[in-house]
Amino acid sequence: MIRKQTSFLVFIIIILSMLLTACDTGPNKVCIVLDTGGENDKGFNEYSLKGAREAAAEMGLDFAHIVSASINDYAAHIDNFIDEDCDLIMTVGFLMGDVTAEAAREHPEVAFAIIDVAYFPGLGCADNVEDCYTEEGGLDNVTSLMFAEDEVGYLAGTLAGCMSESGVVGSVASMEIPPVVRFVTGYQNGAKAQNPDVETLNVYIPDFNDPVAGKQAGEDQIRQGADIIFGVGGNTGNGGLLAAHESGAAAIGVDVDQYYTFADVAPSLVTSAMKNMDVAAGDTVREFANGALTPGIQLFNVANGGIGLAPFHDWEGRIPAACITAVNIADSGLRRRVIDTGYAP
């Protein structure tokens, strides 16, 4: 009799477990594919990972991440996460656009979010990947996290153009892709708005993780008279910041407040042109966990606080009042949309 009762109880427990599993339809796992440059790049990757991971822990979700050694890794990493039953896959970076679109089209049951690529919800990219980039096509399971880099670049350029004593400002950029071009274009036009005669130097280096080439480029710009260097693009841009620091020039960081993430150059950093990727990635995970994540484009700009200049830190009190006023005027103009940053897609 006892054996029969035990067997019956085991049977009931198994049935209840199956029912509970069947009823558990909420998301369980969030996964993020990082671009090249590593998870400790002091900027883009590091803070996207930080925001997503912290939000997943807060919401009680399983979490996994992987770093791409090269662009050839993207598709395989996404496929692996699909096989691991990730409910939300976040991809970090413009270069992952096509492979993310392909995976989203093939797996409509999986939610995707991508940083720096604008997709439109709608027809599901029925014909080809390029359709995803138009209003006529789109992906109903993809959320695009976009930043107005040209706006915060403009603010950084306004400050640089006003502060430069040599009349030459430089920028050391990584790959010539839209987010990086937006930063550089805004920076140069912001500087010229302050000083029409300013000379703006820039170089694009086709790698996010080449600090040696970045440092060499920064040193070359300093030899040409640049007294402020804007480092734009992962560890490559960090090389430019290091060149500025070692030569006694001023520096402007990118993506995050690099005063905290790149201590080696902190005394030389006037400010950083910040994209709040940690906030964007974290909010995306929370919205997904709550069933509130919608497909389409979420734009983070000056007006909604999604981007902005970092504090001046060690330079507080050293920046001329006229330059601070110029930045405030530019900020107001961007918020009111009366300033054209000069970037045209």
Describe the secondary-structure layout.
Elements: H1 2-23, E1 29-34, H2 44-58, E2 62-67, H3 74-83, E3 88-92, H4 97-106, E4 111-115, E5 142-147, H5 149-163, E6 168-173, H6 178-194, E7 199-204, H7 211-223, E8 228-232, H8 234-247, E9 250-255, H9 258-261, E10 269-275, H10 277-289, E11 296-300, E12 307-309, H11 321-335
Parallel strand pairs: 1-2, 1-3, 3-4, 4-5, 5-11, 6-7, 6-8, 8-9, 9-10
Antiparallel strand pairs: 10-12
Helix pairs in contact: 2-10, 5-6, 5-11, 7-8
Fold and architecture overview:
This protein has helices at residues 2-23, 44-58, 74-83, 97-106, 149-163, 178-194, 211-223, 234-247, 258-261, 277-289, 321-335, and strands at 29-34, 62-67, 88-92, 111-115, 142-147, 168-173, 199-204, 228-232, 250-255, 269-275, 296-300, 307-309. It is α/β, with parallel strands linked by helices. The model is unreliable at 9-14 and 16-24 (pLDDT under 50). The protein folds into 2 domains: 26-147 and 279-300, Response regulator (Rossmann fold); 149-275 and 312-335, Rossmann fold, CATH 3.40.50.2300. Helices cover 43% and strands 19% of the residues. Helix 2 packs parallel to helix 10 (277-289) and helix 7 packs across helix 8 (234-247). The radius of gyration is 23 Å and the shape is globular. The strands form 2 sheets. The protein has a 6-stranded parallel β-sheet with strand order 2-1-3-4-5-11, sandwiched between helices. Strands 7-6-8-9-10-12 form a 6-stranded mixed β-sheet, with helices on both faces.
